[in-house]
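Worked example 2:
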Amino acid sequence: MLVLKMQGMNHPSMKVAVMGAGAVGCYFGGMLARAGHQVTLIGRPQHVAAIARDGLRMETTSFDEQVPLAASNEPSAVQGARLVLFCVKSLDTESAGAQIRPHLAPDALVLCLQNGVDNADRLRVVLPETAVAAAVVYVATEMAGPGHVRHHGRGDLVIEPSNSSEAVAQALIAAGVPTEISNNVRGALWAKLILNCAYNAVSAIAQLPYGRAVQGEGVKDVMRDVVAECLAVAQAEGVQVAGDVHAAVDKLAGSMPGQLSSTAQDLARGKRSEIDYLNGLIVRRGEALGVATPANRVLWALVKLLESKHV
């Protein structure tokens, strides 16, 4: 694994677009804008209006600033961008990819900053002439209001190699985003998927942050069952899961005790979640591979049931 440490180096300004400027896109786009890059956030009208008026408020663990940058409702705003941070929900991957396709620069790198393990593969089908790279995102963020991103912890990326990955990684690191280039992004995506499978549904069903959710009676045992099923499916898939997943799961609640999962935030807002691409993916792959996944199935089914109340 190549770890690039380039802090302090000056990098030329790069044109960057963020497709799907929710909490993750606003955080990483904001960090690049703060470092002097030309960033355009493409997002929902209420966020775009607030950012156009006041800039993006970045309330992080180390600073609280209004960061000036551009914002648009239009997918065509990716035009001319050398780097596109692709941050839409997994269920919108194909449709959002089709929206930006006519406007992408020939030398653009589309970096998938999404939950789930198959978004980059799905996006390559939609964007066959564009460089697409997967990334694993480790950050705890939320939109605290229109044009206001709140950061709770971490903020690092692992990205797969491409022609421009090294230059992009250096720019990110110089902007204060620790970034690694790895040949086993698939294994790292699966490790992140397993963390999400263990925490997201539990946090969503209970509407509790990680620190409180894991204190529930029997919850840690359920999470252990979920992780064991995920690892069995990964093994059947031939995936070399990166790192010690059990240790990572045990540590996460302590490192982000106040964080509500993205699935919990979606349910609280009456929105569709990404559960089909988290526990639901484990259930589908388990069925295809002959691996039983009862704990994941229960969590997936309960989140789907809660979603149906709002649809």
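Residues 1-9 have pLDDT under 50 and may be disordered. The longest strand covers residues 131-145.
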